[in-house]
Amino acid sequence: MGTWDMGPFGNDGAADLLDDLGAMPVERRLGAIRGVLSTAAAERDYLEAPEGQMAVAAAALIAAARAGSAFPADPVYAPDLTVPEPPRRLAVLAVHALDRVLAPDSELAELWDETDGGQEWLAHLARLRAELTGDVDRGCGPVPRP
């Protein structure tokens, strides 16, 4: 797992997604993000780490692009990347994708579980999930595993 930070953008999968999004017109970005989230949410077998990393990054982009969001985007790795305000259904899809990333048959969850930072990573995902569901005040604890 090429990871340099436990935030949603600090890994190879997120960097690949940000590069891809930056190379396409703004009006196509929500469709590409939807594709990443749909792929992760629909996976019924083992979810590989790169797909999980991209799903977490895509969910973070959706959270940051929502009106009134306090969730930060990614100024370090893609400072000029803009994403149009997403419809509510994309936030719902992002929550489903995050739940899939946290499932027992997810390589990314397994890898983080084996590190000292695993609980902190879960807390980051809890805050992201809370931002997406509008439950920000209660998003401080770890995300329960499905």
Describe the structure in brief:
The protein is mainly α. It contains 6 helices and no strands.
N-to-C order of helices and strands:
HHHHHH
The outline comes out as globular
Task: Tell me what portion of residues adopts beta-strand conformation.
Answer: under 5%
Distance between the termini: 23 Å
Largest sheet: none
Average pLDDT over all residues: 88
Overall radius of gyration: 14 Å
Sequence stretches where pLDDT stays below 50 over 5 or more residues: 137-146
Number of strands: 0
Number of helices: 6
Structural category is: mainly alpha
**Helical content band:** 55-70%
Strand and helix layout:
Blueprint (H helix, E strand, L loop, with lengths): L11 H11 L3 H17 L6 H17 L22 H14 L5 H7 L4 H16 L13
Helix pairs in contact: 1-3, 2-3, 2-4, 3-4, 3-5, 3-6, 4-6
Report on the structure:
- With 146 residues, the chain is mainly α.
- The protein is built from 6 helices and no strands.
- Helix 1 packs across helix 3 and helix 3 (49-65) crosses helix 6 (118-133).
State the main characteristics.
146 residues; disordered C terminus; 6 helices; globular; 0% strand
